[in-house]
Amino acid sequence: MRDGLQVYCRECASAYHQERQLAKGCNVRPRVDVPEGHKYCRTCGEIKPYSEWTKNRSASDGLATLCRTCKASKGRAHHLKREYGITEAERDELIASQGGVCCICLAALPVHVDHCHETGRVRGVLCFSCNAALGQFKDRPDVMRRAATYVEGNAWKPTLVAPGVYQLPS
Questions:
Q1: Record's InterPro entries (predicted)?
Q2: pLDDT digits (tens, 9 = 90+) for 129-144
């Protein structure tokens, strides 16, 4: 109207709009009654308090469209796809094929996807410690072999063969 007001109240205008959308065959989300201080997550279908939501200043209510739990799971799935090109199901298949343990230490729960930094190929799923160790060795097999030799007790010391002539361990 000229005065800037509608003829109908918000609830009636909203109900009329939904009826029109249904008549056109459009998909209309059902209304969910939510108590004060709570919000409905369309992903998980739960009503949660405002404390379970992250902030979004551009949204009309100041809260994100996904609850913290759904946002975290969606973020993990997108990270796997973006960084390694695999889905959560493919990662779970890798873990199952490894027997549910880390490929290297054969003891800990595997949670980190290991990949070749040159080719990007996924090699397996490792525990935190083994994944960090590979990173520290910069994926260099020669350095890892020397480290294994060192740990096994064969110190990396030159052997005196003749006066002034030393032989390095192989």
A1: Endonuclease_7, Endonuclease_7_sf, His-Me_finger_sf
A2: 999 999 899 889 998 9
CA triple 101-103-108, angle to 5 deg: 40
Largest CA distance in the chain: 107
For residue 97, the model assigns a pLDDT of: 94
Classify residue 61: in a domain, yes or no: yes
The domain in which residue 64 lies consists of: 10-70
Q: How far apart are CA 24 and CA 38, in angstroms?
A: 32
Domain-embedded: residue 124: no
Give the span between the Cα atoms of 37 and 3, in whole angstroms: 33
Beta strand extents in 23-169 (DSSP E only): 38-40, 47-49, 53-55, 63-67, 112-115, 122-126, 159-162, 165-167
Beta bridge partners of 47: 40
For residues 160 and 168, the answer to whether their CB atoms sit within 8 Å is no
| CB 110 within 8 Å of CB 125 | yes
Domain assignment present for residue 118? The answer is: no
The answer to whether 156 touches 150, Cβ cutoff 8 Å, is: yes
The structural domain count of the chain equals 1
What's the predicted TM-score (pTM) here?
A: 0.64
Q: What is the pLDDT of residues 36-45, one digit of tens each?
A: 999 999 999 9
| Displacement of CA 45 from its chain's centroid (Å) | 21
Residue 29, in any domain of the structure: yes
